Amino acid sequence: MKKSTYGEILKASTKLGLTSFGGPTAHLGYFREEYVVKRKWLDDKAYADLVALCQFLPGPASSQVGISIGMLRGGIFGGFLSWFGFTMPSVILLILFAMLVTNGSFDSGWIHGLKIVAVAVVAHALLGMGKSLAPDKPRIALAVAAAAAVLLMPTAWAQIGVILLAGVVGYVVYRKEEAPEAVKLVLTFGKKTGIAAWTIFAGLLVGLPLLRPLIESSYYAIFDIFYRVGSIVFGGGHVVLPMLEREVVPNWMTADLFISGYGAAQAVPGPLFTLAGYLGQLMEGGLGAALAVIAMFLPSFLLVVGTLPFWSIIRTKSSVQAALKGVNAAVVGILLAALYDPVFTSAIRVPADFAIAVFAFAMLVYFKLAPWIVVLITALLGAGAYAVS
């Protein structure tokens, strides 16, 4: 592969990493404009199929689409460069924010404002995801049941159980629906590489938690936590919130610090999974941040490499698509539960807080302001309300 190709991939992805505000749906729009319309690296049909693949896989959909396009363009190393350029700008910004918080250089009023932002952002994400992932009565019922189950059994294992059960229900209800045709994707690696990637993915997912009681290391614990969460999060970045919260609060940090980091993540471009950099920095400094980011995104790499060679087969299986419909509905329910606890319960203390959250929600949903602008305005208002109260 020519060095110029690698340079081209890194340049394009870094540009997107510096300018892609607005969450995963907006990212996919930016990607299409850059890779399909401007650079013509692939056509709309192939792009739509990559988006479908990454919605099918657990992990950050927009990052996985970028990784996939990088792999089509420049092999596995091209996929790494595409991820690096898109992800690193926001990772660096969030690590710097964590350092400010740790040094006491960030006023608690601002942190309270960022927590209020999170209420509006999660509510906005829930609205959009509900329309696309739970559009009919069976899936709405699944979402509500999932929310109730997660609230009543607030553990990481309960969330995994809810997702698996929803997949079974989805298969039973939707298995007779036809699956769409797949587009053939040209790759530099084949099915043997795919099988190896799946083997590594499964080995780490099972092996890391089994060995954790035997290895007394905070760094090992960080890698295990973030790898596991990155492996089982369906539905995009916002769903990472409840799963990570169960793992790191209160053992590693307070709920206030956790939610303020989530609010800050809305103000930076790139994928929401870069919240791992902020959390890792708070947990164990620079090395903790590096391990958290690597562990969070490693499953995405392995899953993309493992699935791309088999995608044309998987895409045409109606049973797989049916199960995924159930899983996605459950994801909406898990996010609904997270909107209440920990987001709402930790941010809304007095009526003024709720008024600010409603204002922020209106700015996002009805006035269509950019998320970073909403974050700044809400953080200011929240800091003011905190100072008065």
Write the layout of secondary structure elements.
Layout lengths: L2 H17 L3 H16 L5 H13 L4 H42 L5 H26 L3 H16 L3 H19 L16 H21 L6 H15 L7 H9 L6 H11 L9 H33 L3 H5 L2 H30 L3 H15 L5 H18 L1
Helix pairs in contact: 1-4, 2-4, 3-4, 4-11, 4-12, 5-11, 5-14, 5-15, 5-16, 6-7, 6-14, 7-14, 8-9, 8-12, 9-10, 9-12, 15-16
Membrane topology: Multi-pass membrane protein
Organism: Planococcus massiliensis
Keywords: Cell membrane, Membrane, Transmembrane, Transmembrane helix
Q: Provide the β-strand percentage band.
A: under 5%
Structural class: mainly alpha
Question: Total number of helical segments?
Answer: 16
Which range best describes the helical content: under 10%, 10-25%, 25-40%, 40-55%, 55-70% or over 70%?
over 70%
Number of domains: 1
The rough form would be described as globular
Unreliable spans are none
Largest sheet: none
Query: SSE order in H/E notation?
Result: HHHHHHHHHHHHHHHH
Kindly state the number of beta strands: 0
- Average pLDDT value? 87
- Alpha carbon gyration radius: 20 Å
Separation, N- and C-terminal Cα atoms? 61 Å
Could you characterize the architecture of this molecule?
The chain has helices at about 5-20, 25-40, 45-55, 60-100, 110-135, 135-150, 155-175, 190-210, 220-230, 240-250, 255-265, 275-305, 310-315, 320-345, 350-365, 370-389. The protein is an all-alpha fold. The protein has one domain. The protein is globular and about 60 Å long.
